Amino acid sequence: MKNQYFFFLILFITVLFSACTSSPEQQNTVENNEEPDTIQNIGHPQINLLDEQIAADSSNAELYFSRANVHYGLQNVNPALKDFEKAIQLDPSKGYYYLKLSQLLFDVRQVAQAVNILTKGVENNPENVDLQLELARAYLYVGDPK
After folding, report:
1. What is the C-alpha separation between 139 and 142, in angstroms, rounded?
2. What whole-number distance in Å separates Cα of residue 28 and Cα of residue 76?
3. pLDDT tens digits, one per residue of 106-123
4. pLDDT at residue 28, rounded to an integer
5. Cα 106–82–145 angle (5° rounding)?
6. What sign results for the dihedral spanned by CA atoms 65, 35, 26, 31?
7. Is the confidence at residue 29, as pLDDT, over 80?
C-alpha cells in the first residue's frame, strides 16, 4: 500500500511540475519572436476591421493605439508592443500612449524599458501629471537611478 501511495505521489508531482514549466504565459513575451496574432487572431473581427482602417489611413495614430489595445486584451504582446510604439511614433503628444505601453512592459517584466518609455513620455508631455505619477511609481519600484 505504501508503494502505491509513493508511486502516485511521484506521478502527481511529475505531472504538476511539467504543467508548471510550460505555461502559455511564457509563450507570449517580448523575447518571443513568433507572431502570435497569425495563430490566435485569424478572423478576429476587431483586428480585421482595424487592419482595413489602418490600410486606408496609415498615419492615424489612434487606429494603431486601438489595435494595440485589442492585441493587449488578447495577450498578444508582440503585436501590441509594435502598435503602441507606432502610435507613439506618429503622435508623441498623447500621454496615454506612453502609459499603456509602460503598463504592457511592466506586465512582461521589462521594467527598465517601461521606465525609459515613461521618461520619454514626460519629456514629450511635461504637463501630463499621470505620466509624472507613473514615472514616480516606477522609480519607487526600481529605485532612483541617481
Report:
1. 5
2. 6
3. 999 999 999 999 999 999
4. 44
5. 35
6. negative
7. no
Q: Which of 13, 83, 101 is nearest to 47 (CA)?
A: 83
Residue 145 and residue 132 in contact, taking contact as beta carbons nearer than 8 Å: no
CA gap 51, 79 in Å, rounded: 12
What is the average per-residue pLDDT within 61-85? 95
User: What percentage of the chain exceeds 70 in pLDDT?
Assistant: 68
Q: Which three cell numbers stand for residue 127?
A: 504637463
User: Taking the C-alpha atoms of 48, 49, 52 and 54 in order, what is their torsion angle to the nearest 10 degrees?
Assistant: -110
Half-sphere exposure of 69 (CA within 13 A, CB side): 14
Residue 67 in contact with residue 84, Cβ under 8 Å? no
Q: Cβ distance 97 to 69 under 8 Å?
A: no
Distance in angstroms (rounded) separating the CA atoms of residues 141 and 143: 6
- What is the C-alpha to C-alpha distance for residues 107 and 31, in angstroms, rounded to an integer? 13
Residue whose C-alpha cell is 500612449: 97
Higher pLDDT, 39 or 121: 121
Nearest to 51 by CA among 74, 83, 75: 83
